[in-house]
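Input sequence (49 aa), recorded before submission:
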Amino acid sequence: MSPGRQAAGAGASPIATPQLVPVTIDGSEYRVPQRLAKAYKRGLRRPEG
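Predicted structure, token format:
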């Protein structure tokens, strides 16, 4: 490996955590990833637990 190159995974930036937004489902508030909020509001996804 040439100088200045890193092995795969070495020094890689961590995966960003999703921004959570509050969504009310059946009277209970849940914090879900922003990109999935519309799916939860439409009933296409349900919170687990």
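Checked by second reader. Residues 37-42 form the longest helix (6 residues).
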